[in-house]
Amino acid sequence: MSDSTRLQPGQLVPDFTLPSLEGAEVSLSSFRGGKVVIFMWASW
After folding, report:
1. How confident is the prediction along the chain (44 residues), in pLDDT tens digits per residue?
2. What is the pTM of this model?
3. How far apart are CA 17 and CA 6, in angstroms?
4. Which of 13, 16, 19, 38 sits in a 20 to 30 Å window from 6, CA-based?
């Protein structure tokens, strides 16, 4: 990851959308004002 794409402490994360387990589209901005924990993993 280049330094130009790394976030600095206090910097806002760009909005993104992912599918939920039920198949609905969920965007990060829909959680604005709340706390969000994001877990990412790979199984290769």
Report:
1. 566 678 888 888 889 999 999 999 999 999 999 988 878 788 88
2. 0.59
3. 19
4. 19
Q: Which residues of 12-43 are buried (b: 16+ CB within 10 A; e: fewer)?
A: eeeeeeeeeeeeeeeeeeeeeeeeeeeeeeee
Mapping DSSP to helix (H, G, I), strand (E, B) and coil, where does residue 19 land?
A: strand
Q: Give the separation between CA 40 and CA 6, rounded to whole angstroms.
A: 17
Instruction: Mention every residue, 6+ apart, whose C-beta is less than 8 A from residue 38.
Output: none
pLDDT of the residue at 2: 60
- Please state whether beta strands 17-19 and 25-27 pair in parallel, antiparallel, or not at all (unpaired): antiparallel
